[in-house]
Amino acid sequence: MSDALHTALARLDTLILGKPTQIRLALTCLLARGHLLIEDVPGVGKTTLALALARVLGLEFARVQFTSDLLPADILGASVYHAREARFDFHPGPIFTQLMLADEINRASPKTQSALLEAMEERQVSIEGQTRALPEPFFVVATQNPQQQIGTFALPESQLDRFLMRISLGYPSPEAERALLLEQDRRSLLRDVTPALTLTELQALQQQVQQVRTTAPLIDYLLALIEHSRTHPRLRQGLSPRAGLALRRAAQAWALLHGRSGVIPEDVQAVFASVAGHRLVAQTHDQGHVLQAQALLAEVAIP
Predict the structure, then answer these.
(1) What topology is assigned to 212-303 in CATH?
(2) What is the pTM assigned to this prediction?
């Protein structure tokens, strides 16, 4: 692991107490050039984690509060007519940034949610017949409240599939919560944070992810997991080829984050639930996504 990456992790651990695994999964997602969905109850630090990632990685940041009356143009931007010059000028929306926080994404209507589909997949937006590229790097970090809460719209499967990972923070441990109550407010600490990585260093790390080795036996293990998900009797929908590519890329990023030049089965297992959980569709709704993913891991032998 590079010194700069080690410093970035240390600063994130200082800002987000007691969540080392979730921090590393989030950073893995960004290194793998994916998008991150954080699902949890309000007040556990989802927005703070997104802010911390932007500050520590030195990225341009924009936050959009998703509400039921939010329109696609509020995200993408729109053209405004200037009568004096007799012309239209495009005013870019908040999506034209390097890290966009889509806060409480499932409180917006499906029409507004769909405004992100092209941006997350193609890293561009098509508005009024013109295609505009988004900045590089471009990350979407979305937060989502549990679906049983009032005023939420379930994300469609096509939208969920755009997220490389879905994680949950959960409540802090008693020790971490005690430190939160005793120490300075985390948002106040964020104002004093300096970037640990330059844009050039971050992009170089993203390139290194693609160079992390995946051997033939490791690919066989991935294929076995994917095939088992498609034939499992408790699953109505297994992992797609795109999900397999996402799993390999996330495992490469996790290996790089831990200083390895090649992927080992433990790297796949570390990211599997976060990558596969939201892509699996059970026959019934009595099982959680993480439990489904963990069950698949337990049933497929490591090569």
Answers:
(1) Helicase, Ruva Protein; domain 3 (1.10.8)
(2) 0.89
